[in-house]
Amino acid sequence: MKTTLQQIIEFQCPKWDDLPETPLFNSQVVEYINHILYPIMNGEKAMTSTMIQNYSKWGIIPKIAGRKYGKQQVAILIIIAIYKQVLPIDQVKKGIELQLKRMTIEEGYDIFAISMEQAIQQIIISTKKKTLYPIKGVMIKETTEGIQAVSNAFIMKLLATMIIEAGGYDQIGEKDE
């Protein structure tokens, strides 16, 4: 089932404190990430067990203790699920490493979550209102420009896909009203 504008508008990216405290098995991580990202994935799976195993093998996510994934791994997997939609996976890895040199995973993840919600507010809300579609200038900090650029790119890509699938800009949202 394809994403509706209303689902995107209502999407709330979990903040660090909202992520599961209890470590999860691979299948639970897949279920959790697919559930929370469903509103913005336009019918595509955000994560699979194989993807998680590959990201672990490639060193993109921190090593796990035992067979369960903790909060850090889940946070990075959520970021990967979004960023891989607009960047090659090697660039996603470099971006995550760069951000983690500047701040903690907790800080970086919360900036990511807020950035996703801001991108939705700035890009999708005006589309739902059927108004002119200006993209407002965004004030960003030097330490977060990459996060905000990718968040906006992801939402713009999602919007472009929806426009094409709907048969034009003026048709977006016709089925969800």
Written overview of the protein:
The chain is mainly alpha-helical and 177 residues long. The chain has one domain. The protein is built from seven helices and no strands. Helix 4 packs parallel to helix 6 and helix 6 runs parallel beside helix 7. The longest helix has 24 residues, at 105-128. The chain starts with a helix and ends in an 11-residue tail after the last helix. The model has no long low-confidence stretch (mean pLDDT 85).
Would you kindly provide a brief summary of this structure?
The protein is 56% helix and 0% strand. The protein is mainly α and 177 residues long. InterPro entries: DUF1836 (IPR014975).
Identify the notable features of this structure and list them briefly.
DUF1836 domain-containing protein, DUF1836, 0% strand, 177 residues, mainly alpha, globular, single chain
What is the fold's blueprint, element by element?
Elements: H1 5-10, H2 26-37, H3 49-57, H4 71-83, H5 89-102, H6 105-128, H7 145-166
The tally of structural domains comes to 1
Shape assignment: globular
How confident overall, as mean pLDDT? 85
- Secondary structure: helix percent: 55-70%
**How many separate helices?**
7
- Radius of gyration (Å): 16 Å
DSSP, total strands: 0
Beta-strand residue fraction:
under 5%
- Which structural class is indicated by helix and strand composition? mainly alpha
Which stretches are low in confidence, meaning pLDDT under 50 for 5 or more residues running? none
Give the SSE string: HHHHHHH
